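In the design runs reported in the main text, the only information available to the sequence generator was the tokenized backbone. The following block is the verbatim input for one such run; it is reproduced so that readers can re-run the procedure and compare outputs position by position.
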């Protein structure tokens, strides 16, 4: 009886430790290429929207590539969807989104997934490996890549789509 109680307690501690470790896999940076920009005023509108988000620490703009490099505050629970909505609120679209997540407990392999406060991430066409530290992931969902790129990848993504896929499920490719 005593051994069973000890095993239950040990199992509970392990589950709690694993969930705490998994919660530290948060987005620390995002690199967004916006589409539809025609001038520096356009990029300024996106910059203002992004900087207005409480989770954003800093935004660096590359006007030549229409790229926004966003540094996020520690322990921000920001989602890729919130970043995309911010760009769209400024009147533009996301042509590419690459996220940097600080992870320690994630195993990368094809069709494997992990969940954190910002959503569920499903690895697409991934080679098996265990990351050490920062992990760069390109989001492949519709609205996170150009329409042309999404159209080209629909067939490939169809094997990862399942009934009941949640709104905050992101199909990602390691970079």
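Verbatim output:
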């Amino acid at each position: 009886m005593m051994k069973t109680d000890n095993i239950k307690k040990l199992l509970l501690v392990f589950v709690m430790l694993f969930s705490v470790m998994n919660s530290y896999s948060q987005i620390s940076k995002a690199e967004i290429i916006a589409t539809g920009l025609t001038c520096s005023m356009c990029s300024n509108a996106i910059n203002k929207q992004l900087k207005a988000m409480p989770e954003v620490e800093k935004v660096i703009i590359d006007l030549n590539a229409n790229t926004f490099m966003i540094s996020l505050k520690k322990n921000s629970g920001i989602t890729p969807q919130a970043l995309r909505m911010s760009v769209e609120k400024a009147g533009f679209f996301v042509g590419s989104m690459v996220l940097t997540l600080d992870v320690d407990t994630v195993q990368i392999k094809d069709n494997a997934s992990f969940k954190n406060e910002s959503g569920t991430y499903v690895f697409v066409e991934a080679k098996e490996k265990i990351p050490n530290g920062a992990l760069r992931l390109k989001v492949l969902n519709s609205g996170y890549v150009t329409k042309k790129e999404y159209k080209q990848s629909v067939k490939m993504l169809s094997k990862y789509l399942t009934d009941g896929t949640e709104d905050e499920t992101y199909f990602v490719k390691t970079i």
